[in-house]
Target: Putative zinc-containing alcohol dehydrogenase
Amino acid sequence: MKAAVLYSAVPSTGSASQKPSYADARPLVVQELARPEPRAGELGVAITYSSLCHSDLSVVDGSRVRPLPMALGHEAVGRVVSVGGGVSDVSVGDHVVLVFVPSCGDCRACRSGRPALCHQAAEVNGSGDLLHGEALLRTPAGERINHHLGVSAFADYAVVARESVVVIDDDVPDTVAAMFGCAVLTGMGAVLNTAAVTAGQSVAVFGLGAVGLSAVMAASLAEAGSVIAIDPNSGKHQLALDCGATAVGTPEDAAGLIAEAAGDGVDVAVEAVGSAGVIAACLGHVTRGGAVVSVGLPHPSAELTVPALQFAGAGKRLLGSYMGDAVPGRDIPLYLGYWREGRLPVELLHTDTRPLTEINEGLDALASGQVVRRLFTA
Ligand SMILES: [Zn+2]
Ligand SMILES: [Zn+2]
Model:
């Protein structure tokens, strides 16, 4: 099998002019690995498309620390080619979206209906193992390669836990389905599950990557009265309007646009940048009783300093949202239903498709904001 492996992170200097060129540094090595077979509780999946997400970039630049070497990629679609022992509800040939939290179904979070926060999944995702056993990937020389979030989908094949897939209808195009496992699940869930936006509310979304744009689509779908989409890259603004935003602008425009649409603040602000400073700004942009949903991943060293009185004094809420508080087996079919009805234009997120050998060039394109979702095929 073929996979893209990260052996060492390429730290970002933080300054835009000194961003590393991944096309030159080539941190991801596309190589042949020994092909593992699924164990009990696992599936072999032929990956058709995987897409590059900001969380992959965060592992590459070292802001998300993971055990290396690791085969990256966590947003993908494929077909089941082999089924391990004890799996009776998935068959060879099934069309599957891969999900990056393999929920155990039995821990405290799973039992309370919050599988996105599964304790066992967090542990094995952190160690680079799979839910039903230790890492299977090996170089031809026998060196262990860690799995990324139980998926490792920048590859032509993956062995994953049964809990890492959701079976979908055969006829959904792979280029659409590929984006449902991370971007769509996370962005839509932030709005529909975490914030539970209702018709007529005002919503602002900060950061217009695939997650932020999915949040814009969800707010529009929920019939929010106004959907204000903010990103410093004005090249993203037309796309946000196409996704259902009612107003777009840069961070400098945000206060004016919010005042115009929602008076003293929006009901819900979604932070999809991953910046402590933007989370703090969002708290200033919500009205009394409003909620900020923190969905972007800040650097682990980032700390938040905000006026403490706004919580008890103005009823504001700060809500963390991991994977959109999703229940994947419920939400992916639900969201695919919206897409089928023409109410969720997920195609807009798909910028282009490239061969897996161009994955490092893809990192540059994502880091510079040239692409929303670039799909890869091995
Ligand atoms: Zn992702
Ligand atoms: Zn669990």
In short: The two ends are 10 Å apart (CA to CA). Residues 183-324 form a domain with the Rossmann fold fold (CATH 3.40.50.720). The chain has 13 helices and 17 strands.
